[in-house]
Amino acid sequence: MAGQKENGFSKSQIAELVQKRPSILLSDPEKTLLPKIEFFLQWTGVAKANVLRSIARDPTFLTRSVENQLIPIYNYLKDIIGAEKVATLVRRGSWIFNRTFAKKVIPNVDFLRALGIPNSFIELILFNFPEAIGQKHDQFREIVAEVKEMGFDPLKSTFVLAFHAPFGEGNKFLWAHCYETYTKWGWSKDDIYMAFKKHPHCMLLSETKISGVLSYLATKMGCESRIIARHPHLLFYSLEKRIIPRCSVVHLLSLKGLVKKDKSLNTILCPAVASSVEKLWFWKIAK
């Protein structure tokens, strides 16, 4: 315990370490802790407080060999995503530094490269969705094949989003929950897959978000919910900051006969905030 305190861990972090890895009480801090802390400080430039927090969250860092695992993994990642993003992964406490890296991540990256996936997409997966690329290689190949069968082009960025949406950590549950929510709103299987192909992350939204947007557009704008399947990007706009304010303006304009009631939702919601279109609407009301 004294060794952990000397290395800078707080009492709560020590308690977290002991709870997750009791064997640390029997280890020699000079051999177990210090080399790993020094590695992350010297190689990644991450502040000591962040390093200690990451180690406390994931003590498996302490089981890694600096020479045989941490340094090779760091160099591999740095060559793909750059030193700054590797440092960010360390601050996040990413599991990507674990011992299955050579058995899972590297073969999976090699497989993506063999398919001709651009390096920029591989970088995106490693940095933003590392859990998706850390699966067993056979399972990973099956997932990639399934995404390709859905019609996604590996050379387009939607392939990465489609790959992550149903198969990332915890995402299968979200996918099923979203599917159920959309069906409650009258969407068919074809509607759901059409929306998914246009914006894969529409299958990672909460029920509250989906129902909030669809309910407002249906009740206040008279829009059939299935129409949104053709424009799933509309689901990502803020209900309070964009959808309600803009639709309220259009509703008032339609009552005054200044705009058609069936005005396209894309026309209403897609222009940038404070656009000239929005200002013109308010000007018309003022007249």
Polypeptide structure, described:
With 287 residues, the chain is mainly alpha-helical. It folds into 4 domains: 1-98, no CATH class; 100-169; 170-229, no CATH class; 237-287, no CATH class. It is built from 18 helices and no strands. It has helices spanning 2-6, 11-20, 29-32, 34-44, 48-57, 66-81, 83-92, 101-114, 119-128, 130-133, 137-149, 157-167, 171-184, 189-198, 207-221, 239-255, 265-269, 276-286. Helix 4 runs parallel beside helix 6. The longest helix is centred in the C-terminal third of the chain and has 17 residues, at 239-255. The N and C termini lie far apart (74 Å). Residues 1-6 have low confidence and may be disordered. InterPro entries: MTERF (IPR003690), MTERF_sf (IPR038538). It comes from Forsythia ovata. Keywords: Transcription, Transcription regulation, Transcription termination, Transit peptide.
Note the main attributes of this structure.
66% helix; 287 residues; elongated; 18 helices; single chain; disordered N terminus; 4 domains; mainly alpha
The best one-word shape is elongated
User: What is the radius of gyration computed over CA atoms, rounded to a whole number of angstroms?
Assistant: 25 Å
Number of helices: 18
According to DSSP, the number of beta strands is: 0
Compute the average pLDDT: 82
Sequence of secondary-structure elements? HHHHHHHHHHHHHHHHHH
Q: Specify the helix fraction band.
A: 55-70%
Work out the strand percent. under 5%
InterPro entries: MTERF (IPR003690), MTERF_sf (IPR038538)
GO biological process, one term: DNA-templated transcription termination
Keywords: Transcription, Transcription regulation, Transcription termination, Transit peptide
Protein name: Mitochondrial transcription termination factor family protein
